[in-house]
Structures are given as C-alpha cells and as structure tokens.
C-alpha cells in the first residue's frame, strides 16, 4: 500500500473473536462439520481452537477513533470487495483526518 501513498495496519483474527464482536462469526452446524471432515478439512486443527466457527467475509475500514467508516460484508465467501474501493475509502479518511 506504500506504493499508493497509504499506510494501514492489516489485522488477523485468531479464534474469530473480533468477528464475533461485530456479529460476523457463525458456527458451523453438525451436518456441515461432517461434510468438511469428509473432505479433510478440520477447522479445529486449522484454526487452532475447537469452536468450528468461520467469519463472514468482510473488509472494514476503521478510523483512528475506532469508528467504522466503510464496511463491505457478504454472506457469500466468493464475493470479495475490490481492493481499489478499499484504497479509495482509506484515502478519504487520510484527507479528512488531517
């Protein structure tokens, strides 16, 4: 992002705890857990916890005061926001926060 003249902090969310605080975490039902296991996907091992939860795909732009300035959330994991849209939202914050 430095090539775009921006600096930002990218965060990860072990255990999907932050996603849960924003109402963006869901628990997989037992039947879906079995399907995942049949395909060799063990979220308890991958996520290093036994919650069997996943976050909704989301990109949040949060300012330094903790206010969400832009949110792009979808229940469909195949739909992802355009990175350029996020960059534009970051630029807006940069110009209004000075």
What's this entry about, in short?
Helix content is about 35%, strand content about 15%.
Number of domains: 1
What is the fold named in CATH at topology level?
Glutaredoxin
Q: What is the CATH superfamily? A: Glutaredoxin
User: What is the string of helix and strand elements?
Assistant: HEHHEEEH
Shape verdict: elongated
Which spans have pLDDT < 50 for at least 5 consecutive residues? Answer: none
Strand content bin? 15-25%
Terminal-residue CA separation: 19 Å
Defining traits:
98 residues, 4 strands, 4 helices, Glutaredoxin, 33% helix, alpha+beta, elongated, two-stranded antiparallel ribbon
Descriptive report:
A hairpin with a 5-residue loop joins strand 3 (58-62) and strand 4. The protein has helices at 17-21, 30-38, 43-46, 83-96; strands at residues 25-27, 53-55, 58-62, 68-73. The protein is built from 4 helices and 4 strands; from the N terminus they run αβααβββα. The chain has one domain: Glutaredoxin (3-Layer(aba) Sandwich). The chain is of the alpha+beta class and 98 residues long. The protein has a two-stranded antiparallel sheet with strand order 1-2. It has a two-stranded antiparallel ribbon with strand order 3-4.
């Amino acid at each position: 992002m430095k090539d775009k003249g921006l600096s930002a902090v990218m965060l990860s969310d072990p255990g999907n705890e932050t996603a849960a605080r924003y109402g963006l975490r869901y628990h997989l039902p037992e039947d879906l857990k079995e399907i995942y296991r049949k395909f060799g996907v063990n979220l308890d091992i991958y996520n290093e916890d036994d919650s069997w939860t996943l976050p909704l795909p989301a990109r949040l732009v949060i300012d330094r005061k903790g206010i969400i300035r832009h949110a792009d959330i979808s229940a469909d994991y195949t739909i992802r926001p355009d990175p350029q849209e996020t960059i534009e939202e970051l630029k807006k914050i940069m110009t209004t926060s000075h």
